[in-house]
Each structure stands twice: as C-alpha cells, then as structure tokens.
Amino acid sequence: MKPFAYVRATSLQQAVDAHACRPGSRYLGGGTNLVDLMKHDVETPTTLIDISRLPLNRVEELPAGGLRIGATVPNADLAAHPLVRSGYPALSQALLAGASGQLRNVATTGGNLLQRTRCPYFQDVSKPCNKRDPGTGCGARDSTYRDLAVLGHSEHCVATHPSDMAVALAALDAGIELYGDTEGPRQVAATAFHRLPGAHPEQDTLIRPGEIVTAVVLPPAAPGAVSLYRKARDRASYAFALASVAAVLELADGRVRHVALAFGGLAHRPWRATVAEQLLAGAPLTDENVLRAVDAELAQARPLRGNAFKVGLARNLARDSLAALAQACGGEPPERLP
Amino acid sequence: MHQAGSGSDPGGGPPHSAPDGAHRSRVTLRVNGTDRDLDVDHRVTLLDALRETLELTGTKKGCDHGQCGACTVLVDGRRANSCLLLAVAQDGAEVTTVEGLADADGTLHPLQRAFLAHDAFQCGYCTPGQLCSAVGVLGEAADGQPSHVTGTAAPSGPVTLTTDEIRERLSGNLCRCGAYNGIVEAVAEVGAGMNGADVTAPSSSAIPPRPDVIV
C-alpha cells in the first residue's frame, strides 16, 4: 500500500474543502471496499478524508412521507430499521442478501452505492482493464470468467455492478443526495446515478470529483404496494449475485396499477426493466403477460462467452418474484404456463 | 492528541499531533478494557496493530481481504473484519479480541466452553474469529436484527437462533477444517441458553475450563 495522509473531517464543508485542495484524495466511509482496493494498489490515494464521523448517520421520516437515510448509516442498521422492514421490504432484503454480518456492520449506505466492480481483471493490476486504467483494454471480455454483464456492456467494459442495495433503490425510485464544493447540494434519481460503461468505464456513476453522497431519499411507499428482492448466487450466502431482481407491485382489480422491476448482476448498473414495466402497466398479471414482458426486456441481452445462463436465471427470478408479489397483494398467484 | 477514552469526541482536522500531510498519527484504542496509545503508520490495519504492535496474536490473519472472517473482533460492541479497518480511523474505539472474552479470573466465555464441548474446531485457526463473530451474532439476534433467512412476517423482538439462522449469520467466517457442525451446535446451545437459561453455567457436558486451548 502506498503511504497517504489522513484527515478526519469535522463538517461536510470541511470535507469537500479538504478534497479540493488535496489532489488524489479519497473519502473514507466504512472502507470495506476502499481499503481492500488500496491493498491491491488499485486505489492509491494521497490523502484519506475520513467522513465516517460526520453527522450523516440518521434515518429520518420525511414530513410528506418517505425516508431520508444518511450516507453513513451502516448497512446492518438500515436493514434492521423498523420503517425499512415494514415499508420497503425489498431494500431490507437486498441489504441482508449482501456481504456478511461483519461487513454489513461497517459498510455504509453511501459506500455501498460507490463500491467498485468485483471483476477480477479490475482488481488485478497486472491485467488490462479500461475501468482501472483507461486505454489498456479489457481482459475480461474473452476470459473464462463468467460473472460479467449480459445487458448494456460496451467493447470497453463488460463488468457488473456488485451492489444488491442499489438494485432495490432503483426499483423503489429512490433519490441520491450529493454535496460538492462547487455544485452545492443536488439530488439525482437512483436510476440515473450509475452509468453504462460506453467509452468511459472508469466512471461508474455521474458523481463529480469531490462530491459526497450525503443521503438516500425514499419516496412514500404506496399503501397497497408490496416489494421484494430475490438473488441467485453460487452459494447460499455471502456471494455476489449472478442475477437478482427487486420488484415492486401494486394491483387494482387484478390489473397492474404500478410495477417496478430492476435486475442486478446483469449490467454495469442496476438495470431498471422499463420495457417490461410498460408492457405490464394496466394489464392483468397473468403468467403469459409476465413472460411476454420479461422476455421483451431480456431480448436486449447480448450474452458473452459462458454467461448466457444469466438470461434464463433473470427471467425465472422475475417471473417467480411477480407471482409471489401478486399473492402478497391478496390475489391468487397467476396460473403458471407449462 | 486525543486523551484516553475520548472516543465519543467527533474530533477534527488532521489527527492530533500529526502535521498536515504526515503519514503517521497517534491514536488511542481501548483494547480488552485497557487504553493503549499507539503511533501508527496510516497504512496499518487494526488487525496488524493488534497482532504486531500490541502482540495480541489471538486474532488471526487469514485472507487479509475481508473474505474469511479469521480477523473478526468487536469494535464498540459490533463485530467487524479488523483487516479492513485502518487503525488511524479507529481512534477512541473500544476493541474486544478473543483474549478479552474470558473473565479476568480465567473463566471462559460460555461460547468458548461450548466450542470445547462440541468439538467446534480442528486446527483452531479460524476459532478466534468464529468466537468473536458468534458473540456478535448473539447480540444481534437478541436485539431483533433480521438476517437473510428471517421470515419477512417475523414479529419484532429477539430472533430465535435456529440452525438456519446460525449458518446464515456466520457465513462470513470460513473454516477450512469443516468444523461447521460443531460450531453451529455450540452457538445454538449458548443461544438457547440466552432465551432463559443461565448462560454463565457450565455447558451440558461440563468440560472444565482450559484457558490454554484458545489463544
């Protein structure tokens, strides 16, 4: 690990000021990903600006409904929060499906959003990687490593985003609050926060240099809406998603009043399935309609060597999730096509 | 420089005596009930500070990347991978390692006794991390924190540590000897005791304390 200076921030403004005058600095939250990447020499900050003790560790109910989750709220605390468990079960379930108990105690809400891909070519400085070192090429694309994107990848990068939490936030229409030295405070939609790789895979998100994630804002949960998160992985616990789905459903008279579907493990960002959602809106939630919608979404998939299985996996996860939610809405699960 | 026990102070600026841009700082950690002042290179993890500076080698270095759980300790009462925590960022923290689990008179923690009674280790390398992690699990379950396998309709309040719950909650602690069955039995026994029985009582098989075993 390279030597670095350390600054403990006492205020948000002091943190962004410190970043502005120290080129090559990084903010430190829980550090569960950053410190690991520093050990690999993937991250070589000149200064760590520790923001973990800033007063951003509260979950507040908003006056008009909804929740504002401070950026340093640990993943474990957020998953266990009574208002998250009752109003946003997909978020609680996504957090609990990720990492281990030890990591969830330390990892923060903001850090979870900003964690980097676990593509082994990104983490190995001896390998080419356009995300880590732009212009060096992509070592993963033609490798035997299979946990790569099937949707939205580019010739420059085929990595997936590893977060479970971010997939739930995409389906729940969350907002991300940011604060920057020159930008001041701003809020962006969770669905817009993470990028597709295009020609610039080094940029995971639309965050600008020096900006800090200060909070995640959840809109009020609709009274009749239900949500869940399902994840398929190589072992029963403590593994990243091969494919996952966060789903929100509200039915009215057997028809879809609101549906949100987001996939994890398939792309460089949480993949909000807008094609499927549009096909399902207003329609009866039959197995036939669900399959037609999900298949239309996944028709965009371009599997790589060895990961075509993810398309079928995602299809089955979405189908089972919507059936379970239809039942949770008080209806019968749709009769399953053969 | 922070004074001993000043962990609740949010602090500020470059830590304490360190000049701006320095690569070392002085920190105070309260380890197993004793304040320890350290001068650390910022690159030093809590794990290395414990093992190499404080010579508390009970905490083990396995993967050094947060994947195996061998380095698990309790920081301000919460279990954490000490290999991923920078010592400088833990200034003022209260740390409990495996050396701090037994009573001052050498009476082993109920989990340590249960591990002996249930043959919950072979080589013992993962055991300090398993024990600290299990202490965390007991607290989290008593506190009503859910896990991935807790039913979504489960009532609030303490979570019963079934075999499925224990396996899920301890999934961040690997054991290459495969002593999982004994580990699960040991944690289940102590967890069941916490639901009413006296956890300070000797475990059912009444194996006498052997403080020499777990180091």
TrEMBL record, chain A:
The keyword rRNA processing does not apply. It is an enzyme of class 1 (oxidoreductase). InterPro entries: CO_DH_flav_C (IPR005107), CO_DH_flav_C_dom_sf (IPR036683), Diverse_Substr_Oxidored (IPR051312), FAD-bd_PCMH (IPR016166), FAD-bd_PCMH-like_sf (IPR036318), FAD-bd_PCMH_sub1 (IPR016167), FAD-bd_PCMH_sub2 (IPR016169), Mopterin_DH_FAD-bd (IPR002346). SMART domains: CO_deh_flav_C. Residues 1-223 form the FAD-binding PCMH-type domain. GO terms for molecular function: xanthine dehydrogenase activity. Its EC number is 1.17.1.4. The keyword Metal-binding does not apply. This is Xanthine dehydrogenase YagS FAD-binding subunit. The lineage of its organism: Bacteria, Bacillati, Actinomycetota, Actinomycetes, Kitasatosporales.
From TrEMBL, chain B:
The lineage of its organism: Bacteria, Bacillati, Actinomycetota, Actinomycetes, Kitasatosporales. It holds the Pfam family Fer2. This is Xanthine dehydrogenase YagT iron-sulfur-binding subunit. SUPFAM superfamilies: 2Fe-2S ferredoxin-like (SSF54292), CO dehydrogenase ISP C-domain like (SSF47741). Keywords: Iron, Metal-binding, Oxidoreductase. Residues 25-101 form the 2Fe-2S ferredoxin-type domain. Residues 1-23 are annotated as: Disordered. The keyword Iron applies. It comes from Streptomyces avidinii. InterPro entries: 2Fe-2S-bd, 2Fe-2S-bd_dom_sf, 2Fe-2S_ferredoxin-like_sf, 2Fe-2S_ferredoxin-type, 2Fe2S_fd_BS, Aldehyde_Oxdr_Iron-Sulfur, Beta-grasp_dom_sf.
